[in-house]
Amino acid sequence: MNKCRRFAFLCSATALLFIARNLPAQSSPQTFPVPTNIQQLSDAVTPREYEAVAAAIEAEMKKPAVQQEVEQGPGLGPLEWIRVDRIALGSLGEGVVAEFNHSPACGTGGCPMWVFVHHGDAYRSVIRGGGWSFATVPSGGSVPDIVLYWQMGAEETDVARYRYRDGKFVSVEAKPKKCMGEEARGACAGRNSSRAVNGISLAEYKSLWEEMKSARQGLRVSSWETFSEEAHAIEWGLVNDTTAVIAGLGACTREKDCGISVYGCKQSYAADSNLPKCEYWPMLQSVRGWGAAMRWDDKDAFAPRTTLIVARRKSPSEIELHRYAAVTKGAGPVPGTTLKPDGCEVLTSKTRVVPKEWKASSFLVHPIDCTGTEF
Predict the structure, then answer these.
(1) Exposed, middle or buried by CB within 10 Å (0-12, 13-18, 19+), for 341?
(2) What angle in degrees, to the nearest 10, is found between the helix axes of 47-61 and 202-214?
(3) Across-strand partners of 232?
(4) Is 193 a domain residue?
(5) Is the same domain home to 171 and 79?
């Protein structure tokens, strides 16, 4: 998969400098910039949900028409490496979009992309299409339209639109049929807002589970069954083939914190494979929270700074933000690099209720003394 498409900032010059040495904790209360977005870990699909989606794909592929379609094409690639994202479908409830991002059919425009609706413990296939991005747009009814985008060039995106009618999604005319440049009207309105989180694949969950089992500290679970039901993990690009995996175990909602650990992942590839393997190392161990964000501060070109912000529940109207930081002088993070406590503050909702959608402008910021605070 094109890494510059998945993590656009990997290709920027500032992303070449990252984490190497630790910063000391602040000695006096100070506020720090509130992230424009916090990724809620529970938005990430769990391993158990991945397994259910894979089972639904295998069941769909047994249908003669689908089997013929798949066999005539280049294939879907290994199901353990698909990317699965949640999608809200109004009165239909929750669905998921599966992107076969290691399919031989993938190109610069996108990959095969199937949509499923969640029913009980299973998933039902409703769309088999393709693209590089997806979104929902208003339909005038209780179920939004689903839009798939296929990149045709730097300034041109093809649009496929589906509407729910008589119990199924059917193809309808997209207006406009193509998105040109930064166009954001009609069906083009949501093309850059598809993913709530950068989740990891089932194969990556399995390798992370093996790492957690062998770790002396961090998240500990008794079995794969427990891990597969409760694990939520998101991925952040660091530099080149190095990423950070932020893993939570538990509810991870704004109503209930979970246990969070961060692992660095140095990726490598075998000569005969395009599937990455991780060399993991712990960057942060066993903190509480429900969401996270990362940001960069490169005011000093020779000591660019990165911070991880972890959000915790304090009360129905308050959120604690805990900041962990490191700086680097060099080519980026290496195994052994860790994040250290750097600051903390409390956000109080102006409406006395934490908004469902994250809006930094909805809060008042209060610095707190981190001395003695459990990070």
Answers:
(1) buried
(2) 150
(3) 248
(4) no
(5) yes
